[in-house]
Prior knowledge:
Blueprint: H1 3-32, H2 35-59
Helix pairs in contact: 1-2
Amino acid sequence: MPILKVHRLLIGSGIAVCLLYAVRQLLDYLHASAAAALMRALFALAGALALGLYLYSIRSQ
């Protein structure tokens, strides 16, 4: 298996983990109204977006 395919798989897994973490933090925010949980959710979404853009950029190669 070429290294680029493995790299894409790992980046895709990272995106999934970021999205799952963001959902969990949003649920924590809705239950406890803790501003820190909302900030963590936003940072996780930003991380998923950044990884998604990176994945898009390496798919064109």
